[in-house]
Amino acid sequence: MHGPASSGWLLVALCAATGVYCLLRMRSSVEEQRRAAGGEALMGFGMAAMAVPAVVFTPPRWTWTAYAVVFGAAAVRALWASRTSPHHLHHLVGSAAMVYMALVMGSSPTHGHGSSGVPALTGALALYFTGYVLLSGARLVPVAAAAGDPGAAGWGDRPELARACRLSMGIAMVAMLLAM
Q1: Pair 15, 174: CB distance under 8 Å
Q2: Which one, 32, 81, 135, 150, has the greatest CB density within 10 A?
Q3: Residues with Cβ < 8 Å from 43, sequence gap 6 or more?
């Protein structure tokens, strides 16, 4: 990514922390939570790796191909999972956006510094994720406390934390798309 190194490091920290939390969510007793958390952890760590400022580290060209392959496989998995849960359609769009960013950054002559102008697909993805962030933020506000003892729910079973995790990844995705 290009731009100020400080904002790149903030993105790295946000995405890595989100990835770690999603790994913790994989310990949930609810199977659907575990599956979703695995995909979200991959997305968080992948976004953290992509957000490392180019001033600090410029990865070799093959890295972008590896990102495209990994997130292409994640997109296929999300497509398959979307037949049982519409939430996976968002995972499909997120994985496809990561493939797109990897291909653009890998084909850039400046090794990941992006290009001038805003291609239509970048704009469309930025609009999608902006809408997702606004909707996720609106859904986060009215989350009611779970019935019974709120301390009884494990870290992986707290819906407000899972929503905050998704919100932060959406914000990071918007920032990364705008930085391209």
Answers
A1: no
A2: 81
A3: 19, 74, 91, 94, 95, 98, 169
Taking the CB of residue 4, how many other CB atoms lie within 10 A of it? 11
Distance CA(155)–CA(22), nearest Å, equals: 10
pLDDT score recorded for residue 29: 80
Neighbour-count burial for 97-107, b at 16+ CB within 10 Å, e otherwise: bbbbbbebbbe
Judge contact between 27 and 138, C-beta under 8 A: no
DSSP one-letter code for 157 = G
CA dist 15 and 45 (Å) reads 6
Single-letter residue type at 92: L
Torsion sign over Cα 90, 123, 108, 115: negative
Q: Which residues of the chain have pLDDT under 70?
A: 1-4, 109-118, 142-157
pLDDT (tens digit per residue) in 121-174: 999 999 999 999 999 888 877 655 444 455 555 655 677 788 888 899 999 999
Q: How many CA atoms lie within 13 A of 124 on its CB side?
A: 8
Local structure of residue 13 (DSSP, 8 states):
H
CA distances from 97 to 69, 85, 143, 154, 162 (A): 13, 20, 28, 31, 21
Q: Which two tokens stand for residue 13?
A: 């920290």
| Single pTM value for the model | 0.81
Hey, what are 156's tokens?
């992986």
